[in-house]
Amino acid sequence: MESTEPTHSYNARQVKVGAAVIKMMSRVTTWFYRMTNGVIGGRFLKGTDVILVTTTGRHSGKERTVPLLYLEDGDDLIVVASQGGMPTNPAWYYNVTQHPDVTVNRRGQQAGMVAREVKGSERAELWPRLVEMYADYTDYAARTERTIPVIRLSPA
């Protein structure tokens, strides 16, 4: 179960530095992932698998690609807009809520998918599986007042 009261929120300096580090690491990971079809960048800490998700920028209309951890759920992929427990949702979350058609790169295999946020009982069912996959989600949820969005990517 997620906490609604942050237990150890990030301070303003940590948010600023953390956002810059996340952005830089995302760019580096994306570059290596693309160059090696996921041989480099295809696994995150503790061996969790990574995909590249390309969204359409909600303001710019430009393609934006982010590396994300994922959980398989049948033909669907489940991703989490955690941003390490930062106080705001990541930009890609707002992009997929505005433009749900995305492209997923899974170790060099491209697929068109449609994103939708899961809520209520569906989210409650998925959250423990996501935490089992990547336990740090528990800490991320404890750091923020927001409910961390869970997104289902389904084949287009």
TrEMBL record:
Q: A single GO molecular function, which one? A: oxidoreductase activity
Recorded catalytic activity of this chain's protein = oxidized coenzyme F420-(gamma-L-Glu)(n) + a quinol + H(+) = reduced coenzyme F420-(gamma-L-Glu)(n) + a quinone
Q: Which Pfam families match?
A: F420H2_quin_red (PF04075)
- Indicate the secretion signal residues: none
InterPro entries recorded for this chain?
F420H2_quin_Rdtase, Split_barrel_FMN-bd
Query: GO terms for CC?
Result: plasma membrane
Which family is this protein grouped under?
Answer: Belongs to the F420H(2)-dependent quinone reductase family.
What name does this protein carry?
Uncharacterized protein
Its lineage opens with:
Bacteria, Bacillati, Actinomycetota, Acidimicrobiia, Acidimicrobiales
